[in-house]
Specification:
Shape of chain A: elongated
Largest sheet of chain A: 11 strands, mixed
Strand order of the largest sheet of chain B: 6-7-8-3-9-10
Strand content of chain B: 25-35%
CATH superfamily of chain B: P-loop containing nucleotide triphosphate hydrolases
Distance between the termini of chain A: 27 Å
Number of helices of chain A: 15
CATH topology of chain B: Rossmann fold
CATH class of chain B: Alpha Beta
Structural class of chain A: alpha+beta
Distance between the termini of chain B: 31 Å
Oligomer: heterodimer
Strand content of chain A: 15-25%
Helix content of chain A: 40-55%
Order of helices and strands of chain B: EEEHEEHEHHHEHEHEE
Largest interface: A-B, 23 and 29 residues
Radius of gyration of chain A: 29 Å
């Protein structure tokens, strides 16, 4: 037997209480993992943004549009490898009114800029020739039951009326930088029938630069070109662009973070209460140990180890539970149904690491006061608790 | 081995212990001298509140005198710091409590091994010594048993083995037979006699039981904090 083994033996002294406490910690860690995965999923597109892409939008707000002629001038800027543009269509399937998905009218070069979207070359060729052609993400296609060759009718709040599309291809992605729930079609198709206020207007320009280390300078150069125009631009790298969207959701994300923190504090209090009960029941034993020559630091160590073991066991169990729940059920459902907001809802090893570290740290914190009190207990008073 | 009285192992001079609670102070030990020889088996008797357990606690280094000095084996104990005193107890004192005070989650062998965790001995040597101590008290067949699987007398024998395992000079026993039936009590007292006579261990025992006191070579009586 070693001192550590002796400390660990105390964990299972009251098996029912230990198991219930471990389960309580596990549920807290599971909830923490789910909430952290929500915030991580929300920022996935930003975290995995391409380093060589610049997004250019109206300087005032991305809700205002740019003249289409700007795209030609952007393409002429030295250092710009390729540029394309897109409009927000705001489409929805009238048969599935509550299903939200991102719907973009784009130029044909769109997939040269977003080359992480992959689909068969034959499908791309067909789409290029098909004025009503659409390329949709595989997650969206699976959710809506669409396949190549289907005809789909969408409605738009911006471009009035019903719009018919042919599904020409279904893309997947090689990186997490692109949502797999997008509906992408030709800008020309909508522009020809667009209302006057949006005709020949583009929502934003996306460029790829030759040298990713100069992406900021490229953005500044673009903005300088349009600096003296009536419509000025604001360019930023893709990460910053995604982050500006997240900024609107920052309050929600902060609230989720606060809730996850509160859950961990509740976990610490539950664990602290369990440890305190155990310590109260064992005062005479600590007195015996002190009489035998054990020091206050030994008492503190025994109690801390016990709390740490319970905290870490609960943490490991919580993470073990979160993997099947997220990877085999919840994650797929969220990606299919909320893919536009949470495109990649999976457990990240970083979050698992944070959860374990927090479980251990809060376990130690929970034991600190009972451990301190037990170590300061007068030996004779402690021994008097016997019998 | 013999228990012939020799130079005092324990030397108490002007020993006084007073407890203060608020404005009230209570003198438990009124100031007296006491020598206990090495190899002695002494019983401390007296009515409840006479100060015998307080005297035992001071001798064992669990409590400190308010005034006076305590020497054990030539070493001043009353002036040691908390940490040094704990280490001194671990080396020099074998404790035997009325309620045995075994750790319920440890087996008999692990309970006996417990004091050795504070030494530099390796696991194999610790186990060997714990097994030897349990053999001395006749419990070699119960090494893997937990306290709740043992009778009261067996638990007290495990406690004696735990006190013995560090080979201390001095054993302090506070009502070691208080929770036992007559037969078990006699077995424990016989074991203490064996430790005293065969292993030359000095034993100071607090007891209310005249039959237990008869086993001691010297019986001292305390009354109202003074030695009679």
């Amino acid at each position: 037997m070693t001192l550590t083994q002796f400390a660990a033996k105390n964990v299972l002294r009251n098996k029912f209480r230990a198991v219930m406490t471990v389960l309580g910690v596990a549920v807290a860690i599971l909830t923490f993992m789910l909430l952290r995965t929500v915030t991580s999923a929300w920022t996935t597109a930003s975290d995995f943004a391409a380093k060589d892409r610049v997004v250019t939008r109206h300087k005032i707000t991305f809700l205002m549009m740019l003249p289409k002629r700007y795209i030609g001038q952007v393409r002429d800027i030295p250092g710009i490898k390729v540029a394309t543009y897109a409009n927000w269509f705001g489409g929805k399937d009238p048969k599935h009114e509550h299903e939200f998905f991102a719907c973009f009218a784009v130029e044909q070069s769109y997939f040269d800029v977003f080359d992480e979207a992959t689909f068969p070359a034959a499908d791309k060729e067909r789409w290029m020739q098909d004025r009503r052609g659409a390329i949709v993400g595989d997650v969206l296609a699976a959710k809506m039951g669409w396949k190549v060759g289907d005809k789909v009718t969408l409605e738009s709040g911006i471009y009035r009326g019903e719009w018919e599309f042919n599904i020409d291809g279904i893309y997947t992605t090689t990186r997490r930088s692109m949502d797999r729930s997008q509906f992408i079609f030709h800008w020309d198709y909508t522009n020809d029938n667009a209302p006057a206020q949006v005709k020949d207007q583009i929502g934003w320009v996306i460029s790829r630069v030759n040298d990713p280390s100069h992406v900021a300078e490229a953005g500044a150069t673009i903005d300088k070109v349009f600096d003296d125009r009536d419509t000025q631009t604001l360019s930023m790298d893709e990460h910053a662009f995604q982050a500006s969207f997240l900024g609107m959701m920052s309050t929600v994300l902060k609230a989720i973070d606060a809730i996850s923190l509160a859950i961990m504090v509740i976990m610490m209090l539950i664990l602290g209460n369990t440890i305190a009960m155990g310590v109260r029941e064992r005062v005479s034993e600590y007195g015996t140990l002190r009489a035998l020559g054990f020091l206050p630091k030994h008492i503190v160590t025994f109690i801390l180890v016990e709390s740490l073991v319970i905290g870490v066991l609960g943490g490991v169990l919580g993470i073990a539970l979160s993997y099947p729940i997220v990877e085999r059920g919840l994650g797929r459902w969220i990606e299919e149904n909320m893919g536009s907001f949470l495109p990649y809802f999976r457990i990240s090893p970083v979050n698992a690491g944070i959860a374990i570290a927090l479980a251990a740290a809060l376990g130690a914190a929970a034991a600190s006061i009972p451990a301190y009190r037990a170590s300061r207990q007068n030996v004779i008073d402690a021994l008097r608790r016997v019998g | 081995m013999s228990n012939q009285a020799s130079a005092p192992l324990i030397k108490l001079r002007g020993l006084k212990k007073t407890y203060t609670r608020g404005d009230e102070s209570l003198t438990v030990l009124s100031g007296f001298d006491l020598d206990i020889a090495e190899g002695a088996f002494e019983a401390l008797m007296g009515p409840s509140g006479s100060g015998k357990t307080t005297l035992l606690n001071i001798i064992a280094g669990l409590d400190r005198p308010t005034a006076g000095t305590l020497e054990v084996a030539g070493e001043r104990i009353d002036s040691l710091g908390e940490s040094a005193l704990a280490k001194w107890r671990a080396r020099n004192i074998g404790f035997i409590f009325q309620s045995y005070n075994l750790i319920p989650v440890l087996t008999a062998l692990e309970n006996v091994e417990l004091p050795l965790l504070l030494t530099s001995l390796g696991p194999a040597e610790r186990k060997k010594r714990a097994e030897t101590a349990l053999r001395v008290v006749g419990l070699e067949q119960r090494m893997g048993h937990y306290p709740k699987q043992l009778s009261g007398g067996q638990e007290q024998r495990v406690a004696i083995a735990r006190a013995l395992v560090n080979d201390p000079k001095l054993f302090v026993a506070d009502e070691p037979t208080g929770d036992l039936d007559r037969q078990s009590a006699d077995e424990i007292l016989a074991l203490l006699e064996k430790l005293n006579k065969e292993f030359n261990k000095t034993i100071v025992m607090v007891t209310h039981d005249p039959a237990a006191a008869e086993r001691a070579s010297v019986t001292r009586r305390l009354n109202k904090g003074a030695l009679e």
